[in-house]
């Protein structure tokens, strides 16, 4: 007997530091303090996130992802985490993109998934061990600067949801999230 499929439609939330704080940092100049440097010519928005990659001798590296959007509405089939390090995504082209996360734990709870919309000027830094979906670009060949870990050990756990769980992510609530964020 095939177990009943529980279908959840995710609501996309505006990305704010407060809403995202249990998953990581929001790297957002618009919501951060600064101090002046370079003889008053430059604002320094200091230490917006920490790079936590030293476990098991890891080192920080900087990469660029060029991403192709997935098909929407998206049925979320898997989530991943990096048990040995944080992972930061900074948008390079100013395009909105999606972030999908779930709280730390042995496995991602499909009932605890949260979807957020970045306004394209906001980056995110997933804290070590936070479940997240691989990058969810909304613009073709979008580009992100990535700060994460290189080193020994397994730093990527993937969990695929079973057939009886279906979590859909539709873009129709994007407008709502974008509107709310704009208010
Ligand atoms: N696999 C990889 O480097 N990318 C993922 O970690 C991701 O979060 O997109
Ligand atoms: Ni990742």
TrEMBL record:
<keyword id="KW-0378">Hydrolase</keyword>
<dbReference type="GO" id="GO:0050385">
    <property type="term" value="F:ureidoglycolate lyase activity"/>
</dbReference>
<dbReference type="GO" id="GO:0004848">
    <property type="term" value="F:ureidoglycolate hydrolase activity"/>
</dbReference>
<dbReference type="GO" id="GO:0006145">
    <property type="term" value="P:purine nucleobase catabolic process"/>
</dbReference>
<dbReference type="InterPro" id="IPR047233">
    <property type="entry name" value="UAH_cupin"/>
</dbReference>
<dbReference type="InterPro" id="IPR023525">
    <property type="entry name" value="Ureidogly_lyase_bac"/>
</dbReference>
<comment type="function">
    <text>Catalyzes the catabolism of the allantoin degradation intermediate (S)-ureidoglycolate, generating urea and glyoxylate. Involved in the utilization of allantoin as nitrogen source.</text>
</comment>
<keyword id="KW-0659">Purine metabolism</keyword>
<dbReference type="InterPro" id="IPR011051">
    <property type="entry name" value="RmlC_Cupin_sf"/>
</dbReference>
<dbReference type="GO" id="GO:0000256">
    <property type="term" value="P:allantoin catabolic process"/>
</dbReference>
<comment type="subunit">
    <text>Homodimer.</text>
</comment>
<comment type="similarity">
    <text>Belongs to the ureidoglycolate lyase family.</text>
</comment>
<dbReference type="InterPro" id="IPR024060">
    <property type="entry name" value="Ureidoglycolate_lyase_dom_sf"/>
</dbReference>
<keyword id="KW-0456">Lyase</keyword>
<dbReference type="Pfam" id="PF04115">
    <property type="entry name" value="Ureidogly_lyase"/>
</dbReference>
<comment type="pathway">
    <text>Nitrogen metabolism; (S)-allantoin degradation.</text>
</comment>
<dbReference type="InterPro" id="IPR007247">
    <property type="entry name" value="Ureidogly_lyase"/>
</dbReference>
<protein>
    <recommendedName>
        <fullName>Ureidoglycolate lyase</fullName>
        <ecNumber>4.3.2.3</ecNumber>
    </recommendedName>
</protein>
